[in-house]
């Protein structure tokens, strides 16, 4: 290990040990002493390491970080660092109204100010629940001080009557069972609660497991650390090692910009296909790429990722859960399979100072039911496809979750196997959908394509996870479990619905979806990657002119100051839904 005291130019010394401005140094020092830190520590030349704490009572998924931080502290201390732990704005996926998506950019903004404005030489980013991971990584990218991510880990497996119940995924299933009258309210709650047996984040391959796996695939957390379940002793141990490692990273001046290269993002895209990762990943990786200054067009998800097979057998695409994923080898076992096919940029650098190739080479799969060898995948070509047309410029579809029922109903025309067409039923926001979905007068049939609009970053501030709509109850009882769903909102990573989502620009930004009417025929061609309403350009122009004259697409008023502020500057999901303009500020700790 490099001796920390020889590290050149620690930025914290400008606060605590700056002979050129002794007056300010005295002021800064004085107050940081008042809880017991000593002059000797603060002026020792030891690196000052932040722990960006995302755990709290409001964030149950990340709450275990309050415990893990003790081990992180011990690691930092042992390696010769001084610890300053501080809170990050909480983002609980399931608890925040109207949607946790609204707070990713707020937490980002807050963390940028903390990392830039306080005497921190390096930071441990405590990640977990869906949006906490991108928010923390995005902020570390903007500021660009040495940073290492520590996952809180998934919950233990959930069980109900001898079967694995996965968080989130069981909710979608239980809702269908409730709608079909198979279970009552009490059983519904019991079933859902069974999926959350311990501390940690969603045990399915939802957005949390996805983003924590991708943080590791990007090289931003220690190899093998993402999948460790929250309550396991290994989780405590890796917290300690993470604390030790950040001190070394400061000495080595190993920064996010050294790790988050275009190659690293392409590695992450391929890992995302192999794990069956969430449709939220393209949004968050686009945002992270923009904040670190890497060019990552949405189309890269298709060109780099579509052909990669699904190897990880986790719900919602498969059967198993987080504990199984860890026992089977986690991210390194997946990466090693991809490496065997030349699908990984092996020389991408990671936080441990070694390359992705060196970290993962030879890591064997421990259970081939859970992580499949490359030549025995669960599904071929399991990545996303990117669609465009007169309804939107860009949207994505997770093809790995297309099930047999859906394939037989929509993708079985021998002359046209990748295309389907049908009449649209259009909902304006989730409330409209909930009010009307079971109304028989809507005339929804198995041929219907259901549209959700007004659910994008502007229309429903933060973008709602609502595109995966269940069919009306009368169709479910007839055995129709999924209709094609298309929309400008997001979809929970725990949903197994093959929706077309993240459509950009959204209706609220006057994208083509704003012009669609119930009854219009729409054609989707997955092979060509097109989605079009079958109307003439003249008709669409007329509708657009009329809508503009009427004041544009209407959406609900903001309820909080932040909603209004974010709506004014947020970009569309195909480019990360970031606060436009924030990407101008790069590597700001170096300026
Ligand atoms: Fe937090 Fe799923 S709700 S990880
Ligand atoms: Mg989610």
From TrEMBL:
What enzyme category does the UniProt record give?
lyase
Q: Could you say which EC number(s) this protein's record lists?
A: 4.2.1.9
What residues does the Dihydroxy-acid/6-phosphogluconate dehydratase N-terminal domain cover? 46-359
Q: Which UniProt keywords apply?
A: Iron, Iron-sulfur, Lyase, Metal-binding
Q: Write down the superkingdom of origin.
A: Bacteria
Q: Which Pfam families match?
A: ILV_EDD_C, ILVD_EDD_N
Checking InterPro entries in the record gives: Dihydro-acid_dehy_C, DiOHA_6PGluconate_deHydtase_CS, ILV_EDD_C, ILV_EDD_N, IlvD/EDD_N, Sugar_Degrad_Dehydratases
Q: Does the keyword Metal-binding apply?
A: yes
* Molecular functions per Gene Ontology: dihydroxy-acid dehydratase activity; iron-sulfur cluster binding; metal ion binding
Residue stretches making up the Dihydroxy-acid/6-phosphogluconate dehydratase C-terminal domain? 369-577
Q: Which SUPFAM superfamilies match?
A: IlvD/EDD N-terminal domain-like, LeuD/IlvD-like
Tell me if Metal-binding is a UniProt keyword of this record: yes
Describe the family membership recorded for this protein in Swiss-Prot or TrEMBL.
Belongs to the IlvD/Edd family.
Protein name listed in UniProt: Dihydroxy-acid dehydratase
What organism, scientifically named, is this protein from? Sphingomonas carotinifaciens
